[in-house]
Specification:
By secondary structure, the protein is mainly α. Helix content is 58%, strand content 6%.
């Protein structure tokens, strides 16, 4: 390094006898600083590998380390010597290239620290600088050097002082923008936002428009240089998106982009539909069905997901919210009058796109029966063919969960037809329901199949589904399809475990926490307490349910402490348990919501982490409870109607929780007795053994038909599937 020269000069001045034989050039003071800067950054580079020594080893590969170490030490040292020894370079040129090397090394060091470049790429950086320097000395462009090197290397070189006047600098910078867009196509518009005047920006905008129309729409709205460039584009697709972006109703047009772009629909048609929300919904459904048909023919329309999301939003806002809101009306003709203008297909999409919004009664007494009343010949296969089997797995899953699957399968044939032939159609449909679960980007279809299996009572149908799962598993293994093997092996284990004669311990077989039991010790916090949180709501039923809860814990084993917004019911014997429950204050004034927030804050401030959470209230309050769900919860009782539909939401917050829920009607006559038994088991220090508890509950509620819709944790197959799959991913 440069310090070697200083030492030699000192020895020479000291008058050593052999001094007159030394020919190593001295470093003038004017350039000493630049050598020192390079020496300093060399030392910093040597530390990048995490070891403060005189070696650079950024890899586990010895050959790579050798090259990187040479680049960090001897090659840079040799460069310094060569610059000083090069008589063709004047003093200014030597300063220029020394400073340039420092700039490159400092830029590499910064990028390596922030992982913008691999540490092992130092040899390429040094080589690229030397090549670029050679071109600069010869008066040639550095563009060929930037062109042949990786994006990360080129990005370091163009930041060097040595090339600030090079004729190839601007073209090189433009080329790096292009390379960045090619390497990260999903970030093209964000990159162009910083470089809107690139000569090839128009071409990149056209490419981006074919890849992501949402991005083009959003950037076209912006009052900046890139937005202006998008709006001035002559590309047909970009032009039509930019037209929407300039309109106040642009988002209303956007779901129809593919049809508008291909002249299959006009803006005027959409304008007409937008004057009436029902007409607009119908137009969305017609477009969704058309696009589903194209997908079936392997033709992917533009913004399909945007269309579906808009259809979901309009269906919820225009129809579902109203029929849900009228759930207390006894006159169902009035409650469901809003559905009168809708066709069977339009009702179908209300069902399959509103899984988490639709109330149980809205589905079972409104949307589902209305579909078949509207059909001249009430055939389920006709319905599915009319929508090109779009979302049919969700339809099957919801039918199973709401106990309408058997009814639906019977609509696939009539009494006047050959039942054996048409029953075969039902079998084909259910086989298709199970196939291809590994071909999507999410686990939604697989979870739907798992949940549905637990709801099916027909033994022949269960056997058919299990056989299809096993066939798919065999095929996945044969083709070495890891995702398929994971999905179908979990389903196979779960479905086989439903038969007690198979003696399968799901927890052991899938390597997940206990499914059949919840150990008492697992519910305790570090101080040995069990914290339970109950959510109550201030509607007309809320106070009745709340008072019933208090009455059930008015005995010598419990004491109650009341606060303004909540009560705390604590055990006096056995395991220390405290049940915190907000008071069901006036919902019209938002007082119940505020009481819940105050209780949430109290629990958080006092490090009280609920391991048991209970929702007491109608299904339309459930989302509010789930938004406040404590991640510490391990046992969760969803006491409302249709709580079973919200398993995925619960598991997003509490991935290993055990959930009790109802597929249809939740009842206080079931919820409170169940809570009493469970809490008493906990107080006595006993584990919650779900099969045993469920046997007892079945006897306890043998005269209450609603209990059949309650699903215990060990039969929540969708929840168990997600746990098992996540475990495999880990």
């Amino acid at each position: 390094m440069a310090k070697l020269y200083i030492l030699l000069a000192f020895l020479f001045i000291a008058g050593a006898a052999e001094a007159q034989a030394v020919s190593t050039p001295q470093i003038p003071l004017i350039r000493k600083k630049f050598h020192d800067d390079i020496d300093f950054v060399q030392k910093e580079i040597l530390k990048l590998d995490g070891v403060d020594d005189d070696k650079f080893a950024p890899s586990k590969d010895e050959a790579v380390n050798q090259r990187a170490n040479e680049a960090a030490t001897s090659r840079i040292d040799q460069f310094q010597q060569n610059v000083e020894a090069d008589a063709a370079l004047d003093a200014n040129a030597k300063i220029k290239y020394l400073r340039g090397m420092y700039d490159v090394l400092a830029a590499y060091l910064s990028d390596a620290r922030y992982r913008r470049i691999k540490q092992s790429m130092l040899p390429e950086v040094v080589t690229a600088y030397l090549d670029a320097m050679k071109n600069e000395v010869a008066g040639q462009s550095i563009l060929p050097v930037i062109d042949k090197n990786e994006l990360e290397v080129g990005a370091v070189i163009v930041r060097s002082f040595a090339f600030k006047e090079n004729s190839g600098l601007k073209p090189s910078q433009d080329l790096l923008v292009l390379k960045d867009c090619q390497k990260h196509p999903e970030k093209t518009l964000s990159i162009l936002l910083r470089n809107p005047d690139m000569p090839f920006a128009d071409s990149l905008i056209q490419i981006a428009a074919k890849r992501n129309q949402e991005d083009i729409y959003n950037f076209a709205q912006a009052p900046n240089s890139l937005g202006s460039r998008i709006r001035k584009s002559n590309d047909p697709l970009v032009k039509i998106i930019a037209r929407m972006a300039r309109s106040k109703s642009g988002r209303q047009y956007f779901p129809f982009l593919d049809d508008l772009y291909k002249d299959k629909r006009t803006f005027e048609e959409v304008d007409s539909a937008m004057l009436d929300n029902v007409k607009y919904y119908k137009l969305l459904v017609a477009t969704q069905i058309n696009y589903a048909g194209r997908l079936a023919a392997r033709d992917t329309p533009l913004v399909m997901k945007t269309l579906t999301n808009k259809l979901q939003q309009v269906g919820r806002d225009e129809f579902i919210n109203e029929i849900n809101g009228l759930h207390e009306l006894s006159d169902e003709r009035v409650r469901f009058k809003k559905l009168d203008p809708l066709s069977p297909e339009e009702l179908y999409y209300l069902a399959v796109l509103q899984e988490e919004e639709i109330y149980t009664s809205s589905y079972t007494r409104g949307v589902y029966p209305a579909i078949f009343k509207r059909m001249k010949t009430p055939r389920g296969d006709t319905l599915l063919m009319h929508v090109y089997f779009d979302k049919f797995k969700k339809w099957i899953k919801m039918a199973a969960n709401y106990n309408t699957l058997d009814n639906f399968l019977k609509t696939l044939y009539t009494t006047n037809e050959d039942k054996s032939i048409n029953k075969l159609n039902a079998q084909i449909l259910m086989r298709a329901f199970v196939r291809g679960l590994d071909r999507t980007n999410s686990l939604e279809d697989a979870v739907d199949v798992a949940n549905s299996f637990a709801s099916i009572t027909d033994p022949d149908l269960k056997t058919l589904i299990l056989e299809e799962v096993q066939k798919s598993l065999t095929e996945a293994k044969r083709s070495n399809n890891v995702r398929g093997v994971n999905i179908y092996s979990i389903l196979n284990t779960l479905f086989l475990s439903m038969d007690p004669s198979n003696n399968i311990d799901v927890s052991t077989a899938l390597g997940i926490p206990p499914v059949y039991t919840m150990p008492n010790a697992s519910l305790k916090d570090t101080s040995g307490r069990i914290i339970i949180q109950q959510f109550f709501y201030g509607d007309k039923d809320g106070n009745t349910v709340f008072n019933s809860f208090l009455n059930n814990f008015s005995n010598a084993n419990w004491r109650t402490k009341g606060e303004k917004d909540w009560v705390a019911v604590s055990s006096t014997k056995g395991v220390p348990i405290t049940i915190y429950a907000n008071r069901p204050l006036d919902e019209n004034k938002g007082l119940d919501e505020q009481a819940q927030k105050n209780l949430d804050n109290y629990l958080a401030d006092n490090n009280l982490n609920p391991t048991v959470v209970i929702h007491r209230g109608h299904s339309y309050y459930l989302n509010s409870t789930l938004k406040q769900l404590a991640p510490s919860a391990k046992v969760i009782l969803l006491g409302s109607c249709g709580g079973y539909q919200s398993l995925n939401t619960v598991l997003n917050t509490c991935p290993y929780s055990q959930i009790i829920s109802s597929k249809q009607t939740g009842s206080g006559l079931i919820n409170q007795p169940m809570i009493n038994v469970m809490v008493e088991k906990m107080r006595e220090g006993k584990d919650l053994n779900w099969p045993d508890l469920w046997d007892n509950f079945s006897k306890m509620f043998k005269n209450n038909e609603l209990f059949a819709d309650y699903v215990p944790p060990h039969k929540n197959l969708g929840a168990v599937f997600i746990m098992a799959y996540n475990k495999l991913e880990e």
